[in-house]
């Protein structure tokens, strides 16, 4: 892999991992913080909802900001916002917890559009899905770092200092990215207007492009199912199959590992086959099938078979992001990858924001965890059929350019 590709990939991957780690740090700290602050650890769910609500809003305005200030400068600003958000957590008051969630969301949302802007310029077209998928492994890497390091930091220095240590890591990363700015932000336009109309442009751009609109709406369904897998799997396994907390946690870990590995594998398959829309369609059908299989878990299932299904569920419901983001960038005109990604991610974050609450409502209304997984699998299967049909139809209409489908 050429250095012209490797350096931007390493930079965007590192930034993605740090902002992801920053977001996950707060739920990891929640049990320790609760005993001292009096804020229930169960509020972590509301905290994450606020984070992703702010992410949805900030991703929409990220395109014009990237064009005016540069993708590296915006990435640095995101890291600083996350650092201030974690410092707010360390203050230990409820109002500052809310401020923290909004700052972390403001820092998390623009990172992906900014990285898409960079990678769309630097990634070889024949390896675009693979490069984007490698970058997206920063999300599970950040979660793994938070899970592995933050508890140790808490034991070593307390939960407040643990938050501040992660904040320092974000600031150090922002400084270390500075040498890349001259080269990667050379295309910025300091005169780019930041009027309200221009900031809303990414959403209009996505809605106005049929292919982008279709992908964005499908990503809403995929993200909803992904978050429901990660949020409810442990509870479901404990209640419906009788697994212990440790065993259920291991199943979730296997799903995450499967998703991280599959992100790279699906990217390679998409590049090699040259039909990303059809790859996404196939993954959508597979994640629907895995969700239905998950709904069939019972105490009679051997742990090994449950593990296989969890890995398959993770490989599809977590593994789709890189191929999706690469296709969004591929469909965007030159220099507009940030706009297209920001608009599309607003729909993706909407799935993250509304999927788990819908799942909770279904369970609360008496449907049960198994039925809720089946019901949320239906939209993904429909999306899969739609993507496969459009990918096939586009290939028939223009056989010479099916590499984009």
TrEMBL record:
SUPFAM superfamilies according to UniProt: MFS general substrate transporter (SSF103473)
* Alphabetical list of Gene3D superfamilies matching this protein: MFS general substrate transporter like domains
Q: Does the keyword Transmembrane apply?
A: yes
Keywords noted in UniProt = Membrane, Transmembrane, Transmembrane helix
Every Major facilitator superfamily (MFS) profile domain range: 6-395
Mind telling me which residue stretches traverse the membrane in this protein?
Answer: 46-66, 78-104, 215-239, 245-266, 278-298, 304-323, 344-365, 371-389
InterPro entries linked: MFS (IPR011701), MFS-Transporter (IPR052952), MFS_dom (IPR020846), MFS_trans_sf (IPR036259)
**NAD among keywords:** no
Question: Entry's Pfam families?
Answer: MFS_1
The UniProt GO MF terms for this protein read:
transmembrane transporter activity
In terms of PANTHER family, this protein maps to: BLL3282 PROTEIN (PTHR23527)
Protein name stated in the entry = MFS transporter
What species does this protein belong to? Candidimonas nitroreducens
